[in-house]
Design goal:
Layout (H helix, E strand, L loop, with lengths): L1 E3 L9 E3 L12 H11 L8 E4 L5 H8 L5 E5 L2 H14 L5 E5 L11 E6 L10 H8 E12 L11 E5 L2 E7 L1
Parallel strand pairs: 3-4, 3-6, 4-5, 6-7
Antiparallel strand pairs: 1-2, 7-9, 8-9
Length: about 170
């Protein structure tokens, strides 16, 4: 399976993915487009972190759209192999840091301007948005992809936008 970068300097370039859906569930194109539309030029203001990166499509899209650096956090070996292959093919080794670890254990407090998390829906935790906020610099954005079929009441300062089977849950530090 292959995905493509949707916009920016790498538009149309291939993002490699393992065959089938497992171990990754790539962020749907409509959700990726919405995410970057919401962020706009904010993407250029600091480092981007993609937790549960899978193919790295969101981190790579962030770089394509002007993020100065990106970190992709993933633990699955097959997804990491595809992510490394894409990074090499696109010449992103200097701009894309690939970290092999469980995203739930990843710690770099106040390091990123934008933190995006798309955990496996079966294992998603309600505390994940708070974890994302911990990784954000002051003024940064924490964004969690949440399943639409799992209703939750979020505090009033949290913005939620629905896109089919997914929601983007957004907070600012």
């Amino acid at each position: 399976m292959s995905l493509h970068v949707a916009s920016g300097r790498l538009k149309g370039r291939i993002i490699h993915a393992p065959p089938g859906v497992e171990p990754t569930r790539p962020t749907p194109g409509v959700v990726r487009a919405a995410l970057f539309s919401i962020l706009g030029q904010e993407i250029t203001l600091g480092p981007f972190c993609d937790l549960y990166a899978g193919t790295g499509s969101v981190a790579i899209e962030a770089l394509s759209r002007g993020a100065p650096r990106a970190t992709a956090v993933e633990s699955h070996v097959k997804a990491l192999a595809c992510l490394r292959r894409t990074s090499e093919d696109l010449g992103l080794e200097a701009d894309l840091e690939i970290v092999r670890t469980d995203a739930a254990r990843f710690r770099r407090p106040a390091s990123y301007h934008v933190v995006f998390s798309d955990p496996p829906f079966a294992a998603i935790s309600e505390e994940m948005l708070d974890r994302c906020l911990e990784l954000c610099r002051p003024g940064g954005h924490a964004i969690l992809q949440w399943p639409s079929d799992r209703p939750r009441s979020w505090p009033e300062h949290i913005e939620v936008r629905r896109y089919g089977s997914s929601q983007l849950v957004m907070a600012r530090r």
